Amino acid sequence: MSSQGDPDAVAANAAARAADPLGDTQFVEDLRRRMLRFATLQLSDPHLAEDAVQEAFIGAMRGSGTFEGRAAYRTWVFAILRHKVADQLRARTRYATNAVDEPPEPDPHPEGFFEPDGHWTEEAAPADWGDPQAALREAQFWRVFEACLDHLPGHQARVFMMREFVELDSREICGAVGISTTNLNVSLHRARLRLRNCLEEHWFAEGAPRA
User: Fold this and answer.
1) What's the pTM value of the predicted model, to 2 decimals?
2) CATH 1.10.1740 region(s) of the chain?
3) Minimal CA–CA distance to 71: which of 34, 132, 18?
């Protein structure tokens, strides 16, 4: 009997792939694609992004024997990539001139969203999201979040990820991108509003799909 038709052999192979993420070609290729997309968005240079991804994989492979399954490997290799991207962006900041003095963008508190005192208007107030902590534990949530992030305008997605994922401060982001602090704050504000609205519609709304 071939191993393909043997349930025990199939289960054993699946367990082996789960224990050794590098042995699963599909998993590695999918992870590499996600990493390359993130690095390209941040660095705006496909060659630098490719180098960063390769270095991250090499660094993770050196400690591959310590991983217990795919989740641990994915977290580790993305952490390495994040640090490599941050190093490159900070290097740009060190050599950058003062941020471009751009004309101020519209008020980051658009009419209709906030009261004069800065609080949400009744119509624009965030909906009840139930138990967000429980949602964060669901793998489907991150697929929806990633889709919402993909629909952000490129500039907003880039600075949002610089702040929230790469963890650069405002000075570093402004130096790397070449914008003023005012425009950075506007872009971050708009990105968060778009993400909030997208998540409310596609995840937290009653009846929203979870697949």
Assistant:
1) 0.62
2) 1-95
3) 18
